[in-house]
Amino acid sequence: MSDERRRLVRPPTGGDPAGRGGAASAKLKTPRERTPSSQHWLERQLSDPFVAAAKAQGYRSRAAFKLTEIDDRFHLLRRGARVIDLGCAPGGWVQVAIERGAASVVGVDLLPVEALPPAHLIVGDFTEPAVGPALLDLLAGPPDVVLCDMAPNTVGHRETDHLRILGLIEAAAEFALAHLKPGGAFVTKTFQGGGSGELLASLKPHFGQVRHVKPKASRSESSEIYLVAVGRKLARAGG
């Protein structure tokens, strides 16, 4: 796998320092100052029931409901579990893991994330060699669950952006296979028609069950889907 496929890029400028930019920051501009795409995004955010529900329930992002639905179905976040969250900003998935009884939660993102005790949240590029060991040290044991909601910054070139997405997903899958406890679970965001079928096939020999899931909180017009792999099998030599 080439470095270009695996490498994250510099954190984007602007947005909320506690996570990716939100509707509140968009409101600072008048409609005349916004681009058509940003105006559409804001209108969609303001009319989205999951955005309203996240605010009402104290979640940092609507993405929290994607994980709660997945967990309700597959029962991944058992009490006392150790959890690693790759691409954790702004912290919605970390909140769900803590809420559901995880004993140790460690997250990493290119962006700084406001503290969520007792979780350990670090700023870093997951694809850098030193970051994986740092996550494991903070977790104080092998993970029961590895979560990945990462997405690279896009450059507007379709093939390049596609390679970056695939690279991150593959790197997360390799990390999960290398470190998950037997019986553990891996959840990653992927995209329809973006190599998700190949990833599912590659993980099937290593897990008891591997499925694609489209949570209700994932917008219907989005091509994103989630791959859920449960029941990590005992690793054999070389895999």
Distance between the termini: 17 Å
Strand order of the largest sheet: 3-2-1-4-5-7-6
Which architecture does the CATH hierarchy give at level 2? 3-Layer(aba) Sandwich
Q: What is the molecular shape?
A: globular
Remind me, CATH topology?
Answer: Rossmann fold
The total of beta strands comes to 7
Q: What is the domain total for the residues?
A: 1
Portion in beta strands: 15-25%
* SSE string, helices as H and strands as E: HHHHHEHEEHEHEHEE
Task: Please tell me about this protein's structure.
The chain has 239 residues and is of the alpha/beta class. The chain has helices spanning 3-6, 23-26, 36-47, 49-57, 64-74, 92-99, 131-139, 158-179, 196-203; strands at 82-86, 104-109, 120-123, 145-148, 185-191, 207-213, 224-232. The protein has one domain: Rossmann fold (3-Layer(aba) Sandwich), CATH 3.40.50. Mean pLDDT is 81; it is low at 1-28 and 39-43.
Task: Explain the layout of strands and helices.
Blueprint: H1 3-6, H2 23-26, H3 36-47, H4 49-57, H5 64-74, E1 82-86, H6 92-99, E2 104-109, E3 120-123, H7 131-139, E4 145-148, H8 158-179, E5 185-191, H9 196-203, E6 207-213, E7 224-232
Parallel strand pairs: 1-2, 1-4, 2-3, 4-5
Antiparallel strand pairs: 5-7, 6-7
